[in-house]
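ENTRY TYPE: protein
CONTENTS: sequence, structure tokens:
***
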Amino acid sequence: MFRQATQAGGVRRCVWAHNEVSIRYHDEEWGVPQHDDRKLFELLLLEGAQAGLSWDTILRKRENYRAAFAGFDPRLIARYDRRKIATLMKDAGIVRNRLKIESAIENARAFLIIEDSCGSFDQFIWQFVDGRPRVNSWRSAQQIPARTPQSDAMSKELKRRAFKFVGSTICYAFMQAAGMVNDHLIDCFRFQAVQHER
């Protein structure tokens, strides 16, 4: 199939799942509807960290991010100060980009404001797909968009609420990861499986 890979045992997966780390992420997480606030924050932070880099790079650093960013606890991250930023800038296990590190802290603060005002970040963020995953029917990776009207709206609202590194392309990647859209190709074995994991 064009732009799709066949892995060991004849299992068909989306073409980007091509090594041990990405295969595990693809098979267990990507596209599964996520409603846990801390997991949603983790995905948002990691997608922002990925900007300009490969997703494989971030997946390989994910455990380092968990250690450096307090298990993605926004309440702890929101209290990070200049001294903590300086420490993170020396941490080779994460992307040592000052703007991205500072944005994670700013985003944690903005995230907590949404939790307090909306009841949960989950309730707020899923409104952009009317509370239900959008199911696509792509036959090749070339058909998958980099952004949509929904990701445009999400990006605009997150920026209005002081989030950083939340452009529409990043928001769409977040939507894919969090299962707000099912962008598994239709002959990927996970296409049907994620429908039952709602």
